């Protein structure tokens, strides 16, 4: 508090005086009317204290700058996006049980949190993440298409296309969720369901990125 007041007076062009018996700071020499006149012995001792004050202020500023720099430079970069098929076209499934989808056509994978050989995204930093999935259903043949966005073994969001004989339905969903280090996020195709993709069109995709660390 004292240092703040002293620096403020310096900034106003006032003279910082040696604290008297009371320990209060007085000042003079400035044109500002709020300055209280006093005599300021500008001896070596006074200048040494003034330099020490500025030095400690500078050290604090340098520390703040270095903390801010490490925050910006150390910010983890996590982003991935992938489509289901990297060659050909056709349905994936049906499988007898719920199965994680392996999105093979990787558009981006900064931070390598997404594993295309398992289809699983694993959080390497604790934070708030955005995920989006889209699903294409050609309905030829006509079993259902159901996919779940999973966090570990919990369903977070779902896309359904169950009935009807209409062709070429598409659906999407997105969430923002907190993840701890080691949490797994993936898309699960439900038992007996199918999903369609065309590697030239990338109709069925899975995307995620870190919004901010926590
Ligand atoms: C994708 O495009 C290439 C080049 O046009 C073509 O040769 C290939 O057959 C296409 N693949 C599919 C699955 O349509
Ligand atoms: C369905 O999509 C396929 C491409 O996957 C396209 O060739 C076909 O014309 C579409 N059919 C209809 C009825 O929209």
From TrEMBL:
PROSITE patterns: C1Q, PROKAR_LIPOPROTEIN. Residues 73-214 form the C1q domain. Keywords: Secreted, Signal. GO terms for cellular component: extracellular region. It is found in: Secreted. Its main location: secreted. Pfam families: C1q. InterPro entries: C1q_dom (IPR001073), Cerebellin_Synaptic_Org (IPR050822), Tumour_necrosis_fac-like_dom (IPR008983). Gene3D superfamilies: 2.60.120.40. Residues 1-17 form the signal peptide. This is C1q domain-containing protein. It comes from Coilia grayii (Gray's grenadier anchovy).
């Amino acid at each position: 508090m004292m240092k703040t007041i002293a620096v403020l007076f310096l900034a106003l062009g006032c003279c910082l005086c040696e604290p008297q018996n009371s320990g209060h700071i007085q000042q003079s020499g400035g044109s500002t009317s709020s300055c209280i006149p006093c005599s300021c012995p500008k001896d070596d001792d006074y200048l040494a204290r003034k330099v020490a004050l500025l030095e400690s202020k500078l050290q604090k500023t340098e520390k703040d700058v270095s903390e801010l720099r490490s925050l910006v430079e150390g910010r983890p970069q996590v982003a991935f996006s992938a489509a289901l098929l990297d060659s050909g076209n056709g349905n994936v499934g049906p499988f007898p049980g719920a199965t994680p989808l392996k999105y093979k056509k990787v558009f981006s994978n900064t931070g390598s949190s997404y594993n295309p050989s398992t289809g699983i995204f694993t959080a390497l930093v604790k934070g708030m993440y955005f995920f989006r999935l889209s699903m294409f259903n050609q309905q030829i043949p006509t079993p259902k298409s159901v996919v779940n966005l999973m966090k570990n073994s919990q369903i977070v969001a779902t896309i359904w296309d169950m009935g009807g004989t209409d062709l070429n339905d598409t659906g999407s969903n997105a969430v923002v969720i907190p993840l701890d280090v080691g949490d797994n996020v993936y898309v699960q195709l439900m038992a007996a369901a199918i999903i369609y993709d065309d590697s030239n069109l990338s109709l069925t995709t899975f995307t995620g990125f870190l919004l901010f660390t926590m």
